[in-house]
């Protein structure tokens, strides 16, 4: 489940370095600069991104037809063209009515819950960790709909950036208005009924995780800025939606329960809250979240040897190790926006993001040697490509770059190769 915002958008640093005139750069020093809630706008033609780096995108745009990037670029345009011809998405389109009676409320089902064969109606559902119930992806729920919307917005915004074709921007704006702004179709900014379980509960704390899909939407909105397809009122409306959602995350009982989670869920809560707060122009809140991520998340969740014990207990231990590392990488990438360096954070026993990469990287291409259970270990490694890209850049580490290269050979058309933090000198 490692996804695109690190992700969906990272070009392997070593691949970029192999293109003439490209080189790795220190993530702390030099321009461009992420300036709190203004992001990179001042150095990126008004594009208010926070994790998509101006020089990385510019380098990829200049070299999109190179052998290293052409497959990913072709895949991006194909996805964007599909989105261009496709529908818009709204939470009111689902067939099931939420417990509130308001179809504007998002609903989803916990992914690993299945009908109990011992009961006539299957309820209450029972848990089968790591096995996704396809019922979750039916039209009764909103998770797949949110995924399709956010993936389409991302593809369209990037296609607009790479081609300067306004059609892509116009369609992305339409998708954003329908999902977030139009009174008849907008989603209410809460996740009260997310990841419910039939026969058990209408919603769970774990459901807050569902909105990780919106992380890439934040970056996409920034990329669209030069097109002017979003009016000033649209922009304010989007920022207000995320501000309202931040408020829900900080006050709702299920959200507060998610914040207290000791596994990847708690880290994802922080990564979402910090990102959405920056977008909603609440930089002090974002900084407060990121500043305590070291002692609050890294120290208790990463051991000195780099293992993440809460994730190793799962049936997909390799996947969840990366899935817990992803939001930490996200927080580290946001750190420069608020003056916090999580990349180089070290806990009292040596805990840190880097040691987690050091522990996991030997299993790239040698997943059978991973000493814990995983139902689909090769899939977990493929999904980790953007993480190694980010680590290669952050640490200037040729070993991590080589691991990213190795993964990329199995994913030559990954759209995640199109936006890396490496850039031209």
UniProtKB/TrEMBL annotation:
One of its GO terms (molecular function) is lyase activity. Gene3D superfamilies: Chondroitin AC/alginate lyase (1.50.10.100). Residues 91-370 form the Alginate lyase domain. Keywords: Lyase, Signal. GO terms for cellular component: periplasmic space. It comes from the Bacteria. Residues 1-25 form the signal peptide. Pfam families: Alginate_lyase. This is Alginate lyase domain-containing protein. It comes from Caulobacter vibrioides OR37.
């Amino acid at each position: 489940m490692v996804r695109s915002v690190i992700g969906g958008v990272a070009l392997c640093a070593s691949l970029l370095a192999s293109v003439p005139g490209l080189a790795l750069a220190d993530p702390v020093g030099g321009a461009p600069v992420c300036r709190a809630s203004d992001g990179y706008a001042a150095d990126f033609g008004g594009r208010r991104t926070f994790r998509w780096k101006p020089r990385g995108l510019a380098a990829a745009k200049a070299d999109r037809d190179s052998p290293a990037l052409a497959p990913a670029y072709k895949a991006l345009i194909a996805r964007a063209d599909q989105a261009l011809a496709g529908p818009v998405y709204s939470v009111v389109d689902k067939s099931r009515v939420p417990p509130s009676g308001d179809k504007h409320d998002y609903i989803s089902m916990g992914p690993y819950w299945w009908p109990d064969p011992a009961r006539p109606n299957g309820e209450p559902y029972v848990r089968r960790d790591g096995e996704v119930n396809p019922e979750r992806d039916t039209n009764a729920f909103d998770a797949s709909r949110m995924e399709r919307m956010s993936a389409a917005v991302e593809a369209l915004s990037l296609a607009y950036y790479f081609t300067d074709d306004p059609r892509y921007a116009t369609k992305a704006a339409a998708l954003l208005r329908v999902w977030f702004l139009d009174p008849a179709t907008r989603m209410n900014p809460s996740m009260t009924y997310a990841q419910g379980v039939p026969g058990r509960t209408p919603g769970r704390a774990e459901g807050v995780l569902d909105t990780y899909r919106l992380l890439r939407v934040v970056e996409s909105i920034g990329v669209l800025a030069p097109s002017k397809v979003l009016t000033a009122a649209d922009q304010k409306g989007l920022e207000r939606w995320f501000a309202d959602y931040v408020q829900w995350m900080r006050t709702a009982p299920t959200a507060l329960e998610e914040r207290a989670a000791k596994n990847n869920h708690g880290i994802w809560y922080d990564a979402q809250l910090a990102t959405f707060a920056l977008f909603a122009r609440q930089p002090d809140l974002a900084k407060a979240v990121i500043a305590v991520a070291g002692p609050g998340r890294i120290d208790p969740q990463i051991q000195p040897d780099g293992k993440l014990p809460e994730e190793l207990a799962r049936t997909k231990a390799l996947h969840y190790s990366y899935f817990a590392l992803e939001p930490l990488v996200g927080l580290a990438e946001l750190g420069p926006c608020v003056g916090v360096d999580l990349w180089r954070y070290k806990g009292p026993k040596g805990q840190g993001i880097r040691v987690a990469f050091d522990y996991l990287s030997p299993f790239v291409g040698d997943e059978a040697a991973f000493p814990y259970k995983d139902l689909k270990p090769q899939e977990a490694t493929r999904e980790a490509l953007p993480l190694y890209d980010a680590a290669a850049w952050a640490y200037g580490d040729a070993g991590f770059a080589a691991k990213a290269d190795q993964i990329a050979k199995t994913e030559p058309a990954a759209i995640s190769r199109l936006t890396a933090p490496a850039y031209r000198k």
